[in-house]
Design a protein that fits this description.
heterodimer, A: 209 residues, alpha+beta, 4 helices, 49% helix, B: 216 residues, 4 strands, 22% strand, rod-shaped
């Protein structure tokens, strides 16, 4: 005898578990694609926003770039003009005050000595080596006559004064009588105590640029 | 759609669905997410690059007015040097103005006669490794005179005081037979001049524009 009474049909039976596998599958099948779609949409939106931003900044750069180019050209022009001014100033800076030199020479020549010749010459030279520079060099040759027993001393004193006199210390680096440049004056009629001499002076080189 | 009743078939269908989902996910990631991420990264980099460039440009641009003032000042200096101190040619002839200057100072110094002859043009040598060209060259004349030593000094004084850029690159003083007071004096007088006349013209024009307010 079958006493069993089915209050619900078989197809109406449900699991007693709290979490139903089917429910989980159904929920996931909806939420996962939804989450993924949302993330994808967010990513897409971010890219679009960045695109807009890039276009905006590109427009800004497009406006700034010519101005920057202009500023760079201006810097180049300034550098070129500064170079020109520096070089022009170099002409003033390296100039030898030949008027002062000639005036001071008058003062240092002893009374018993007579200058008969003066040759001052200047030129430009490039120094050798790694830090090569252009210098303005000058040299001076003085020729003269000295009379009397003290002629040798006078010429020696004159030579020394060309480097030691304050007016010349920053100008003349070296003064010397070259070999055989102090000798008897062989001019007909010249006294035996008269000497002729030549003094060479090398000037402090002045860096041009 | 209902899943099959049988456990085995149901599992097979679920596995198939899972495989399908994984495949779809792969396609979405491979052809959607990854390119978008790459695009995002490149856009960010481009944006940063643009911002850096703009910042750099702004630094230059904000200094522009200062640079313009500096350049205007330099142009004025050069125009002043060029006009007042460099030797200006007369239709390409430098000897004429040089002679006039030498004669004027000789006259002031009490030197009656002076001969002026051209030595010529020269350029200051450059170190070998220098890539810049000299903006200026020089022009030299030889002034020959018979004069006392004191007058020669007076001539030099006047010449050098009037123009701090002129130089005397050579002086020769020798006695003259029978004239103890008048020496034979030879002086090489040197002026800087523009090496590039076009550059000079541009500078003078710019200075002129600045003076008339055409250029700011």
């Amino acid at each position: 005898m079958n006493l069993r009474v089915d209050l619900i049909l078989d197809q109406e039976r449900r699991s007693g578990r709290v979490i139903n596998a089917r429910l989980v599958v159904r929920t996931l099948s909806i939420t996962l694609p939804l989450i993924l779609a949302t993330l994808f949409a967010l990513l897409f939106l971010r890219v679009q926003t960045l695109n807009t931003e890039v276009r905006k900044w590109e427009a800004v750069w497009g406006a700034r770039h010519p101005k920057q180019e202009q500023a760079l050209r201006m810097q180049g022009t300034i550098a070129a003009n500064e170079g020109r001014v520096t070089e022009a100033e170099a002409w003033r800076r390296v100039r030898l005050d030949s008027a002062a030199l000639l005036r001071e020479l008058q003062l240092v020549v002893p009374l018993t000595t007579q200058l008969t010749e003066l040759r001052l010459s200047e030129d430009f030279q490039v120094t050798e080596g790694r830090a090569a520079v252009t210098q303005r060099n000058a040299s001076l040759m003085l020729g003269g006559k000295a009379d009397g027993p003290q002629a040798k001393d006078d010429v020696t004193r004159l030579t020394a004064s060309l480097t030691e006199t304050p007016a010349f210390t920053n100008m003349i680096a070296r003064a010397f009588v070259p070999p055989n440049a102090f000798s008897l004056d062989t001019t007909p009629g010249a006294p035996e105590t008269r000497r002729v001499f030549r003094i060479h002076c090398e000037f402090q080189p002045r860096v041009f640029k | 759609m209902k899943l099959p009743e049988g456990r085995k078939e149901r599992t097979q269908v679920l596995v198939l669905i899972l495989i399908g989902l994984v495949g779809m996910l792969f396609v979405i990631v491979q052809f959607g997410v990854l390119p978008l991420r790459a695009s995002l990264t490149s856009k960010r980099e481009r944006l940063q690059e643009l911002r850096d460039k703009i910042d750099g440009a702004d630094r230059f641009i904000t200094q522009m007015s200062r640079h313009e003032r500096r350049n205007a000042d330099l142009i004025q200096q050069l125009a002043n040097l060029s006009t007042n101190y460099f030797l200006q040619d007369e239709v390409g002839n430098y000897l004429l103005p040089a002679t006039a200057i030498v004669r004027r100072h000789a006259e002031t110094a009490g030197i009656e006669e002076v001969e002026v002859g051209q030595i010529g043009f020269g350029i200051v040598p450059q170190p070998k490794d220098s890539r810049e060209e000299r903006p200026f060259k020089f022009y030299t004349v030889r002034a020959t005179m018979q004069t006392p030593y004191a007058n020669a000094i007076a001539f030099l004084d006047g010449l050098l005081a009037a123009n701090p850029f002129v130089s005397v690159s050579g002086v020769q003083i020798a006695p003259q037979q029978g004239q103890p007071l008048a020496h034979s004096v030879v002086m090489d007088v040197q002026w800087p001049i523009w090496a590039d006349k076009e550059a000079e013209r541009e500078i003078l024009e710019s200075a002129q524009k600045q003076a008339t307010g055409e250029d700011t």
